[in-house]
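User: Run a structure prediction on this.
Assistant: Running it now.
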Amino acid sequence: MNTMHKLVLTALIAGLFCGTAWGQARMTDAQADGLKGKVKEVSYELQRIEEKNGKSKTEQRFVSHITTYDQKGRELVSTSHSIQGMFEKTIYLEIDGHRAMKSEMTRKESGHPPMLIVGPVPRSTQKPDPRYEIKYLDTYDERGNRTEVLLVGNDGRIISVQTYKFDESGNQIEWGQWKELEDAKQMNRAIVYPKRNFDKLPQRTIEVEGRKLVIVRNYYVASKYDATGSLTDSLEFDDDGKISRHVRYGEYEFDALKNWIKRTNFRVETKNGKEALIPEMIEYQVIKYYP
């Protein structure tokens, strides 16, 4: 067997044992965020549109959050801003071979001590690990799409499960958030309105570190795309499976790498059997790339 044949055989064997189908690399964080190319930083900015007396008024543009990535597409740091003066910084790291994060929240004004983000009702199973707050346990399909993310607190509690479905073109067409059933019921008792109907929500049982847990899907969104892969519609569903909110995306602008840099969100309302589009928001992505 000559050298070339040995190299080909070695590559084929390696492909058989990789985590996804041969030639299918796992989705990066940047790709999961819908980005193309070697993205270094994205500043996500918004302009709200106010409808008053039949006229639209565009408010001042502001920064919602900024995310940085390394050259392999992994999230490094994300900073979120709010118009109330709060500032949240999330640092992404790797713990025991898994994605993880730590964060803090402060006010923009100096002199205020940092505050840790308050999570869901504690259901601790172990002593907290000070290295991180949340660890992400990812599942991928044969195409390398990230189809499920289990969020585990540093004390072993299950915070939530995120599930994703993709079409043949790799577009994310469904997103679901699942909570542990007992936690969801406890949160439901604490709210006044609207109360959740758990009998109508999908449930499933998962096993985590030897524990069997019943989880319930408490949030579900379906998405539609055009022929170019641009998001056109986002539909949120209530407990009865009916559309509770429908957003349409249009008026796109793109950069040279086909990443969108501007788009407008319209709330879809049905009046007299006809769709009416109500402009709500202009979104911007200010993108910096690695050379």
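Confidence is low (pLDDT under 50) at residues 3-19, 110-121.
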